[in-house]
Design goal:
With 180 residues, the chain is of the alpha+beta class. Helix content is 29%, strand content 32%. It contains four helices and nine strands, in the order βαβαβββαβαβββ. It has helices at residues 12-24, 48-59, 92-107, 133-143; strands at residues 2-9, 37-46, 67-68, 70-76, 83-88, 120-125, 151-152, 155-162, 169-177. Strands 2-1-8-9 form a four-stranded antiparallel beta sheet, with helices on one face. A hairpin with a 6-residue loop joins strand 8 and strand 9 (169-177). Helix 2 (48-59) packs across helix 3. It is globular, with a radius of gyration of 17 Å.
């Protein structure tokens, strides 16, 4: 079984911007720069033949490249945040790409959990009780407005996710060019 996901890699200029934000927020355990990406579909633990079938399907498709536009910072977890992330506009192109790759995964015998797609890039994860909302909100407020011009993303990547005690390691399995 292979734990996998489909994601959009980020351009170096955006990765630099996000790492500057991580530093400015004084995060104790920021997500490493090599792990910064925007997940389109988490595939979970899958049999290799099913991932191979999805790979062949994606390799034979020419999907449209979406634009990513940074819109701010937010948390998941309410008053006891478990995740700090950069938010991105849910553009029609990004929404269409996410829906299409979810559909193609389902046609490859992969069960996708139904959940609302919230385009984001995780900047930090928190252990239970590690970050309080008021403290984090104050640090986010100090950063001021966080946004960017749109970036056209030219490829999508299938990653293997290897869980380790030190944190996950993401290994690219295949990349798929996207049409401009």
């Amino acid at each position: 079984m292979i734990r996998a996901f489909l994601a959009l890699p980020l351009p170096d200029t955006l990765i630099h911007r996000l790492t500057v934000l991580q530093h400015g927020l004084r995060l104790t355990d920021p997500v490493p720069r090599e792990n910064l990406h925007l997940t389109l579909v988490f595939l979970g633990e899958q049999r290799e033949p099913d991932l191979e079938d999805l790979h062949i399907t994606l390799d034979n498709r020419r999907l449209e490249a979406p634009q990513l536009q940074l819109t701010g910072l937010d948390v998941f977890g309410g008053k006891m945040p478990r995740n700090l992330h950069a938010t991105f506009a849910l553009t029609p192109g990004l929404k269409a790409l996410q829906a299409k790759v979810s559909q193609l995964a389902r046609h490859s015998n992969i069960t996708i959990k139904a959940r609302k797609f919230v385009p984001h890039v995780t900047l930090a994860r928190f252990a239970e009780g590690e970050a309080s909302a008021p403290e984090l909100a104050a640090r986010i407020q100090q950063q001021g407005a966080v946004h960017s011009d749109p970036y056209l993303i030219p490829e999508m990547v299938m990653f293997r996710s290897i869980l380790r005690a030190s944190g996950p390691v993401y290994d690219p399995l295949a990349s798929y060019p996207l049409l401009p």
